[in-house]
Amino acid sequence: MLIETRDLSFTYMPGTPFQVEALQSVNMTVARGEFIGIIGETGSGKSTLVQHFNGLLKPTGGEIRVEGKNIWAGEINLRTLRSRIAMLFQFPEHQLFEETVFNDVSFGPRNLGLSGSELTERVRFGLESMGLDFDTYRDRSPFQLSGGEKRRVAMAGILAMRPQVVVLDEPTAGMDPAGRRQFLEQVKRLHREEGLTVILVTHNMEEIALLAEKLFVFNRGKLVLQGSPAEVFKSAAVIRDTGLEIPALSELLQRLSEQGKKVRTDLFSVEEAAAEILQLVREDRS
Amino acid sequence: MNSPIIETIQLSYDYSLDGEKEIRALDNLSLKICEGEYLCLIGPNGSGKSTLARHLNALLLPAAGDVYVDGLLTALEENRWEIRRRVGLVFQNPDNQIVATTVEEDVAFGLENLGIAPPIILQRVAEALELVGLKSLAQHAPHLLSGGQKQRLAIAGVLAMRPRCLVLDEPTAMLDPRGRREVLATIRMLNRQERVTVVHITHFMEETLEADRIIVLDRGRIACSGSPAEIFSGKLDLEALGMDMPPIPALAMALREGGLAVPQGILHVDQLVEFLC
Amino acid sequence: MSGMRSITLGHYLPGNSLLHRLDPRAKLVGLLILIAALFLIRTFSGFFYFGLFFLIAFISSRLPWRYFLRGLKPVLYIVIFTLILHFLFTKGGRVFWRFGVLTIEENGVYLGSFMTLRLILLVVTTLLVTLTTSPIAFADGIEFLLRPLRIFRVPGHEIAMMMTIALRFIPTLMEESDKIRKAQMARGADFESGNIFRRARNLVPLLVPLFVSAFRRADDLAVAMESRCYRGGENRTKMRQRQITGLDYLGVFTACGIALAIVLTGV
Ligand SMILES: Nc1ncnc2c1ncn2[C@@H]1O[C@H](COP(=O)(O)OP(=O)(O)OP(=O)(O)O)[C@@H](O)[C@H]1O
Ligand SMILES: Nc1ncnc2c1ncn2[C@@H]1O[C@H](COP(=O)(O)OP(=O)(O)OP(=O)(O)O)[C@@H](O)[C@H]1O
Ligand SMILES: [Mg+2]
Ligand SMILES: [Mg+2]
């Protein structure tokens, strides 16, 4: 197991009138090379959870293990850990600070002690992984890019550290459909081709159902459901109870199946759903 | 339909970059918004949606062309406050539009600015909070609310001024599904029951399905406009405009291509289920 | 440092005690009178009576004492610093202790304790008022107190508005700085080690985005306020006209009386 939590709990401001139990006894595992989705309504503890994966928060109860090692028992150097499990926060364009795109993207690798041609290579890899041309962008100011470009530069800065895992906290909020599609396309390609482990936190059910291999559903600090998107969205009642919703296509297929039609309900793409329904109609006719 | 409440006539607007280079954000845009209409505005990042929104209540003034609100010209200084009262704006980030330190005080903010008498303010604040369903939280501190509650608070703050038109700039972009449902339900209720004209800007295609009309903006111009059924009929190349088909219309189109005679205008799960059963 | 989300300046705790219900104007006037008294007191017995009065007020406010003490933490260093400064550098009277050139003498001990006590009483009294007054009420109180200064063109309303907005945005900005700090730490930034110059330089990745964000928020907020017809204090009304009640007069008179009594016994 790459990442494993054992009875992980976290309380903000313990011992004050404002105390919040953000996570309660969470047990979950993430394997190498998986594409994980984390969903749950506002305040359910998603961001708190993922900040434990690279040691940005220290559990107030239980433990978190990476490759079998308890990260808070002094067995792992936290800075090395953070370069391997990289994290992109919501609205990542707000963290840009350097004068040029090159400098900003190289911030992470520089902190790892890289320099010279190796550094340049890393920056090139980062930018080109996000579909940004190295020579066009390297000397531009990150503050004069469009919103979508800024976000990709921020992601490039993460990828330039060559992490094994990327944690993305609502990476596409505020992007237009095309931008969203392209961004996720790049992430999917890295997952497929480079074997990158991806942990995606999102509020977009349609998106996550198509992308993730495994979903974790949170509600008020507790892990309430896990499994493949098909398994998770089958529990429509639980999903709705936690304030989420199921993708429109799943809803349609489930409704059809409730009406006695023999359709698979575990399809999330338009093409697959269409094929399934067309076949159903053909069978009905014959 | 009814008479136009907002009209832009050949509206153009430029932002200047570094003082010299200019960016044309709106380009000769003419548009009529009817009283009581629910209009959705979509378009890629940078297509000028927010810039247009800010022209609708005189936050920005046209570089060329005119904007009329309820017959009032926005360019005239003396019309400004009346226009801002009649057209309320709600922004994307709920945190950056809440001024006061309690829910109730925040709703009162606009009314206080208008110099309305305190007893009337109290009454209107209560009304507005009731409408958006936040009455029980009147004394709460805004930063302790959820995203959806904050956005409804922002809507209440505008509603208290009894506007004729509500312009919402990506009000759900930062919300979770529940928050989004709450806000959308509030917007629809205001449009249907309170007869408020709504201009709703969004990047989520599913949100536009209830609209009376959708306008797609591209590089400061109207690329196309029509009812949701027309826009999502599959005849327009939405992808070229950086937009998407919502799942159900997309499925209907795929079924049509597969030889099934799905009627036009199917937008919702219910409709498709009904057709298939 | 996490968990700054709920903190507001002064850490106001809602409640329903007498102190909570007092009009902010009455509270601020009372506070000013008490502070003035504090500076007139010349004897330890005066401090003792003052302390007694504070204790009664504190108990009646029903604030949790742990929470109260936590609010004092930031000023602890200043108090200790004052104490040490006076102990070491105020000379005169008997010598209690000597180490090389350093001596602690009678006057130092006396003045040090005196000043420290005054400082502590000043802080706890102010804290008691801020903990029982909501930020918005506080700003209203300030606006009222500044009103006489209008003849000198002091913009009372604007100052109060600025205070309210600052209070409203402090939690947001703290949260933001927490987030940016973590985002940069996730890229390997180091805010904890190195000498002071290194540390200062390492703050750049935190400060630049924080400023950019503060400006963006300020800009957004200005637009939002403008679109809700904000145009300064003129012709503005207030939803809640604060009513001065008998209770408030009583509060101010009590403060006056107590201040007078303590000063008279303690000068
Ligand atoms: N304050 C500004 N200064 C300079 N240029 C600006 C400014 N605001 C917007 N622009 C530019 O004007 C154009 C239109 O921007 P606008 O914000 O109206 O787009 P939008 O459709 O709202 O985009 P989004 O979907 O990202 O919100 C863009 O090219 C943008 O870069
Ligand atoms: N810095 C903080 N200080 C105090 N409480 C916090 C802090 N951060 C989060 N919380 C609280 O902890 C709980 C979990 O928050 P968290 O941010 O992990 O939720 P989330 O699932 O990421 O929500 P969202 O979808 O809104 O991002 C919430 O109740 C929240 O108010
Ligand atoms: Mg979060
Ligand atoms: Mg916009």
Describe this structure in words.
The complex is a heterotrimer of chains A (286), B (277) and C (267). Chain A has helices at 46-53, 78-84, 101-111, 116-129, 134-137, 147-159, 177-194, 205-211, 229-234, 236-241, 248-258, 270-285, and strands at residues 3-12, 20-30, 35-40, 61-66, 69-70, 85-88, 165-169, 197-201, 214-219, 222-227. Chain A is an alpha/beta fold and 286 residues long. Chain B has a single domain, classed as P-loop containing nucleotide triphosphate hydrolases (Rossmann fold). In chain B, 33% of the residues lie in helices and 24% in strands. Chain B has nine helices and ten strands. In chain B, strand 9 and strand 10 (221-226) form a beta hairpin. Chain C has one domain. Chain C is built from ten helices and two strands; from the N terminus they run ααααββαααααα. In chain C, strand 1 and strand 2 (102-105) form a beta hairpin. The longest helix of chain C is centred in the middle third of the chain and has 31 residues, at 156-186. Chain C is flat, with a radius of gyration of 23 Å. Chains B and C meet through helix 2, helix 3 and helix 4 of B and helix 7 and helix 9 of C. The complex binds adenosine-5'-triphosphate (2 copies) and magnesium ion (MG) (2 copies). One adenosine-5'-triphosphate sits between chains A (12-13, 20, 22, 40, 42-48) and C (2-6, 178).
Unreliably modeled segments of chain C: 1-9
CATH architecture of the domain at 1-76 and 165-173 and 194-243 in chain A: 3-Layer(aba) Sandwich
Nearest-integer average pLDDT of chain C: 82
Number of domains of chain C: 1
Per-chain topology:
The complex is a heterotrimer of chains A (286), B (277) and C (267).
Chain A lengths: L2 E10 L7 E11 L4 E6 L5 H8 L7 E6 L2 E2 L7 H7 E4 L12 H11 L4 H14 L4 H4 L9 H13 L5 E5 L7 H18 L2 E5 L3 H7 L2 E6 L2 E6 L1 H6 L1 H6 L6 H11 L11 H16 L1
Parallel strand pairs in A: 3-8, 3-9, 6-7, 7-8
Antiparallel strand pairs in A: 1-2, 1-4, 4-5, 9-10
Helix pairs in contact in A: 3-4, 3-6, 4-6
Chain B lengths: L3 E14 L3 E14 L3 E5 L6 H7 L8 E6 L2 E2 L6 H7 E4 L12 H11 L4 H15 L14 H13 L5 E5 L7 H16 L4 E5 L11 E6 L2 E6 L1 H4 L15 H11 L11 H8 L1
Parallel strand pairs in B: 3-8, 3-9, 6-7, 7-8
Antiparallel strand pairs in B: 1-2, 1-4, 4-5, 9-10
Helix pairs in contact in B: 3-4, 3-5, 4-5, 5-6
Chain C lengths: L17 H4 L2 H17 L3 H18 L3 H25 L5 E5 L2 E4 H26 L3 H12 L9 H31 L9 H7 L1 H24 L18 H21 L1
Helix pairs in contact in C: 2-5, 2-6, 2-10, 3-5, 3-10, 4-5, 6-7, 7-9
Bound molecules: adenosine-5'-triphosphate (ATP) (2 copies) and magnesium ion (MG) (2 copies).
